[in-house]
Every structure is written in C-alpha cells, then in structure tokens.
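re: ur question from yesterday

yeah so i grabbed the chain u mentioned. its 368 aa long if i counted rite. heres the sequnce exactly as i have it in my notes:
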Amino acid sequence: MSLHDKYKLTKIINARGTFTPIGVSRSSKAICESVSSALSEFFIIDELQVLASDKISQLTGAEAGCVTHCGSASITLSIAATMTSISAEKIALLPDASTMKNDVIIPTGHVINYGHSILQDIRLTGANPILIGKERNGMLEEFEKAFSNGNVTCLLLVSSRLIKDKELDLKKVISLAKKYDIPTIIDAAGQDFRCKELLETGADLVLNSPNKYMLTPTAGMVYGKKSLVDAVYANEKGIGRSMKATKEGIIGVLAGIEERVNLDLNKWSEEQKEKVSYFVSTINKINGLEAISIPDATNLPFSRACVSINENEINMNSCDLAKLLKKDSPQIWTIDKECGDNKLVFELIPLRLDEVDIIIQRLKNIVH
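ran it thru and got these structure tokens back, copy pasting raw so excuse formatting
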C-alpha cells in the first residue's frame, strides 16, 4: 500500500518543478537507500560535516563547504557569518547585531517571497536589509554608494523563475564589492548545475538547495571562502541551533554529490529534451492549445514546456485550466504564475513517461 493510500493523502503529478509545498523533488533509489541507512545509525556530526566539506569542495572548487538544514537556513546563517566570524561572543549575541556591521545590501528585484520574504531571512539575524536598484539605470553607482560606508554585506539572488528584473552582471557587482572589502553571498537555490560558474564570479559564499535538482532530502549547501564557511557552521551554536543539518540530510547530500559527479550530463540533458519534445508535439495536436519548448532563463541544462490557450477556440483561460488540472486525482500542478499571459508552464524533469501521458490525456479531456 502506498503512503498516499495508507494515510489518505492527495496524489499529485508535479509539473511545477522544485516547489517546496509539494515536496520539492524525488530522490533516486541510491539516495533513498543511503538516507534509510543513515536513519538507523549514529554518527559524529562534526565528522560528517568535515567529510561534506571535502566532497562539496571537490564538486564546486571551493575552499570549503558545509550542509545546513535548508536553503532558507543557508541565507540566514551566511548573513550571520559575515557579522560574527567564528567569535563565540558575537554568535551568542545574535539576533542583537547592534554592535556589528549589520547592513545587508540586496537589489530590489531580488526581494522575493518563496513562502516568506527573503528579507525575513536577513532580519532573523538582527541585520538590516538595504534595498537598492529601484531604477535600472545607474545600478552600479548605487551599489558603489552603498558599499562605500563599509558597514555592509551584499546578498544577490540567481533564479530561473523568481527574479523580477533581468539578471545582474554578477562579476561587475562582486568586483566592486571587493574594492571595498565587502563580503558577497549568492543565493542560488536551484542552480546546483552551475556551482563552479557561480563561484567563479568571485562571490565569497554560494548557496544551493541540493534537495532540488540533486534530489537529496531537505538540506542547504554552502560553499566558498573557508573562513566564512567555518563561521556559518559555528553559528549552529547560536541562532542556527534550530537550523542545523541532520545526519540523514548530510548523508543525503553526500549521496547526491556522488550521483552528480558520476552523471553523464549530455545524456541526461538529451533525455530531458526528448521528454519535452514528445510533450510539445503531442499537445500541438490538440485544437486550441499550442505548446513550445522554452530554455531555462539561467542556462540550466534543460527546457520546460509552455502551453498557450486560444480563447477563441476554448472557452477558458490558463487560470481556469490550471484549476481544472488540480480538480481530479491525481492533481496536476503546473507553473501557473504566467496566467496573465494565458500560458501554463510544465517542468517535466521529475516525471515518468506514464505521468506525462496522464497530463496529456487530462488536457485533451478538459479542452474537449
């Protein structure tokens, strides 16, 4: 009996992507087995973190790395690290950061809400978020003015789907920050395919959520400058006590890294391309619907399917369609933030072909 049947839970086909409210991702068999084994064993957590640092460094090219409880925890602990270093006295003071350098510069277009505002991740440390860039012209000048007081950290976001503005020139901003000895953090939750590239921007810390495309249990992955990574981990003895990584989380990340190192990326990307191509070509045979393949906005190695609705042929819009896809069992969840453009986006990466066929058949049944 499945867990859904045992506990009478809603069955879902996830075409929305790595979305936390519906469980983010599906772990592979090997990762599941590693995590299952971890749950029945005892470990010295410090020893696991030393091992994780070594493996994360091998994967990313960073000086050091560590595992946190989740992506949100990584943001908060990384901000804390820039204020406290490894000072036990400062760590004990947080969230009272009044005696520390506690301003955090973040572009306005990077202020997202992914269940809560990213600003709250900053404020949990006692830090003060400073928003810049309301005007796109002169953005670098705004950064320089903010950096010049020396009392800041800079937090930047890289995301395929959440950033409101076009992507900044990260290297230029980070180079400017270095001129003023300002630490920089890149929150790149779903960007683990680009970890080396993002680290090469010169950022002091890069943050990923390996439970997205690395398919691990819930966890955060922090890597970069060793002194700051050490400070991130040290803050688990302060405000990070409730954000600590679990044994199964760390083991899961180790298993995820092993799979990523051994992944034939070209083969994997081709498989994703074929899946999207099949979906698009089949949808285009349905009157009133038009599908295209759209590349990832940040050049991740896969595409998504975008389905447009012809309201002259079908008496509904994309918001209506998204609701109808969730009406029956299994519910089908899509990326519906573009409802205003009368489009739905489908991320097919975690789906089996039989699930893709269920989506296609449901769409046929709804529009006809």
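noticed a couple things. The chain has two domains: 3-22+264-367, 42-261. also The two ends are 34 Å apart (CA to CA).
anyway ttyl
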